[in-house]
Each structure stands twice: as C-alpha cells, then as structure tokens.
Design a protein that fits this description.
Blueprint: E1 2-7, E2 12-19, E3 23-31, H1 33-36, H2 44-63, E4 74-80, H3 84-101, E5 105-109, H4 110-116, E6 129-134, E7 139-146, E8 149-155, H5 161-171, H6 178-186, H7 210-230, H8 232-258, E9 262-266, H9 273-280, E10 285-287, H10 291-294, H11 298-310
Parallel strand pairs: 1-4, 4-5, 6-9, 9-10
Antiparallel strand pairs: 1-2, 2-3, 6-7, 7-8
Helix pairs in contact: 2-3, 4-11, 5-6, 5-7, 5-8, 6-8, 7-8
Bound molecules: 5'-O-[(R)-(carboxyoxy)(hydroxy)phosphoryl]adenosine and zinc ion.
C-alpha cells in the first residue's frame, strides 16, 4: 500500500510517499525558517499563509515519482498537535484530495509520526524500545513495546528543549534557529564556566527547561552586553551542558525503568553532535533517524498513516485540528 503523507503542523510544509509503512519513495519539505527568522520564532498567522502557498507544489513534487495522485492508495494527514491554523491548511487540503481521488484518509498524531520515522531508517530498530522526542515544540519520552503502541513516560512541564536552545541563542545574539548556532559557539566554550541549574534532574521522567532558560537570562542581565558578547561561547557551552545532561539522564532512567536496551532519539535536537557523543558512552543501543527524517516531514506522516490504517483511524469528514493532541497518555 502506498500512502501520501501531509504535514503542516508547524513551520515546515511536508509531503512524502511511503510504501507499506517502511519504504521511502519521496520526501519533500519546504522550510519557512527564512520567513520567521526576523521574529525569532514561529509566527502562527504567517505559518498558515506559507503552508497555503507551498502545499500544492510540495505535494506535486512528492507525487512525481509515482505519477501523480493516482499512484497512491491512501492519504494521511497530521491533525494534531500543532498550530490550529497551520493544521487546518493540511487537513482541509487532504480531505479535498482524498475525496477527489476516492481514497481513504488516515488521521495522524504528529508525535507518533516522529516515532514512526524510525521505521524508514535503512536499518530500523525493533521494539521494544524507548523513544525520546526532542524538537522545538516537544520534549517527551515514550515506551514503545511494539510499533503502534505507546506509553507516555514523561514530558516537559514548560518549554521544549529545542525552544530553550532557540531562546538562549537569541539572548546570546546568535541567529535563528538557534540550536545549530548555539552548538557551534559552545564547541569553543568552557562548559564549567557558569553553574546553571539542571531542573527536576532527580524527580521522575518529566522535564523542565524554563528555569534553565531564565537562569541564563538573569546571568546575561547581570553581566551586561559587553561581557555577554565576550563570554558568549562559555555561556553557550554551560547552558548546553545543563540541557543535555537533563535529556541524557532521563532517557537512560526511562530505559532502566522499562528494562529496555534500545533508545531511539528523534526530532531536530538529535542533530546535536555533542549530545550524540555523550550518549554513545551509555549502555544502550542507540538509533537516530537520518536528519531529513528528524525534522518535520511528510514521509514520517505517511509511515504513521500506515500504523493508523492498521487501527482503522479514518479522519472523519467533520474532524478539525486537535492542537493539544497527546500520545499514549
Ligand atoms: O524537529 P525539528 O526540526 O522541528 C520541530 O520543532 O518540530 O526541531 C527543530 C529544533 C529547533 O529548536 C532547533 O534549534 C533544534 O531542533 N536543533 C538543535 C540542533 N539542531 C536543531 N538543538 C540543539 N543542537 C542542535 N545541533
Ligand atoms: Zn515535530
């Protein structure tokens, strides 16, 4: 079965085709990073408008290798969580396209899609495993006893870790999106130069990054702009060390708690090389999807659509966006 997946939950417009839930046929993403960069974060109304402009050409390119919409057996679309207006663009388009092509439409949870991206790896992991989702919008741990089954183990109480990287990068005068720029600056800094908190480190599997971000903001205010510029790399390294220690500690605690030997890290923050090096020393088998599948994309939605189809999760004609949708709660 060939599924076309459509993703518009945040600031990437994505479409991709996947065969039988595991074979990647195409994956086309139009990033809006340039549109939102001047604002230092995603502007919801601008995101919706960009999806509206980009979706048709992105879908057309994703369908090219299969000869157009007739080349797929079903559609899948992200219906939550995410920005309501952005989700609505994808959902409305998918409903119309599924109706016109007379194929089923499966509703996909964006969080499941990030996990399902693992199935598109050249050598995918086999569950049981623990998945850590670390993006600009989410930070959450899931136990995955089998594909399509999820138990939520812990999530962030406030900011997502990628969001914290982006906000701290902004405080330090680094460009948006901040994660990669901050990692680069941190490589030249001393991670022990500033003592920043590791919020909730010993308390269960939930995360918190707002306090850490505030601690950096207070330090920046305290030392002033000239000293912040001079010590930028030390501030970046010290923040990064605190954030990554929280992620690593909780991910490994989750593996121990569930008795899992495999840990999969998904989402944009998985690009962080410093973190990968730290995790490599851990007593677990590690899996990272290739970067093109880590960020938001349509292929992961198609992969999750296959799992949703197995559960019979048709997107109802009257269904709308579910901005606060959860997974495995
Ligand atoms: O998964 P993703 O591409 O999009 C969603 O948020 O869904 O993740 C983007 C996030 C951004 O916050 C970005 O700053 C962060 O991932 N990121 C990084 C790195 N590369 C991207 N964070 C830390 N280190 C990196 N090297
Ligand atoms: Zn995402």
């Amino acid at each position: 079965m060939r599924i076309l997946g459509i993703e518009t939950s945040c600031d990437e417009t994505g479409a991709g085709v996947v065969e039988d839930g595991v074979r990647l046929v195409s994956n086309v993403v139009a990033s809006q990073a340039g549109v939102h960069a001047p604002f230092g974060g995603v502007v919801p109304e601008l995101a919706s408008r960009e999806h509206e402009v980009n979706l048709v050409p992105v879908v057309a390119r994703a369908l090219d290798p299969v000869g157009g919409i007739k080349g797929v057996d079903a559609l899948a679309v992200t219906y939550g969580p995410g920005l309501a207006g952005s989700l609505l663009v994808g959902i409305t388009f998918a409903k119309a396209a599924a109706l016109a092509a007379d194929v089923p439409l499966w509703g996909v949870n964006h969080l499941e899609a990030h996990v399902a991206a693992l199935r598109l790896m050249p050598e995918p992991p086999t569950p049981p495993l623990v998945a850590l989702l670390a993006t600009g919008g989410h930070t959450a741990l899931f136990d995955v006893p089998a594909w399509g089954l999820y138990a939520a183990l812990g999530e962030t109480r406030d900011d997502a870790v990628g969001e914290a990287f982006d906000k701290v990068a902004r405080l330090l005068g680094l460009p948006y999106p901040g994660g990669p720029a901050l990692e680069k600056a941190a490589a030249n800094g001393d991670a022990a130069a500033f003592k920043f908190p590791r919020p909730m480190l010993d308390r269960g599997l939930a995360f918190s990054f707002a306090g850490l971000k505030t601690a950096v903001a207070l330090k920046v205010k305290d030392i002033g702009p000239a000293e912040t510029a001079r010590r930028r790399d030390d501030l970046a390294a010290s923040f990064q060390a605190a954030a990554l220690e929280c992620l690593t500690t909780k991910a490994l605690a989750a593996c121990r708690l569930k008795g899992r030997r495999r840990l999969a890290v998904v989402g944009g923050v998985a690009a962080n090389e410093r973190w990968r090096t730290a995790l490599a020393a851990a007593p677990v088998e590690l899996f990272y999807p290739p970067l093109a599948l880590c960020g938001d994309n349509g292929a992961m939605v198609a992969a999750a659509g296959f799992l949703a189809a197995a559960r019979g999760e048709t997107l109802a004609w009257e269904a709308g966006p579910a901005p606060a949708l959860e997974l495995g709660a």
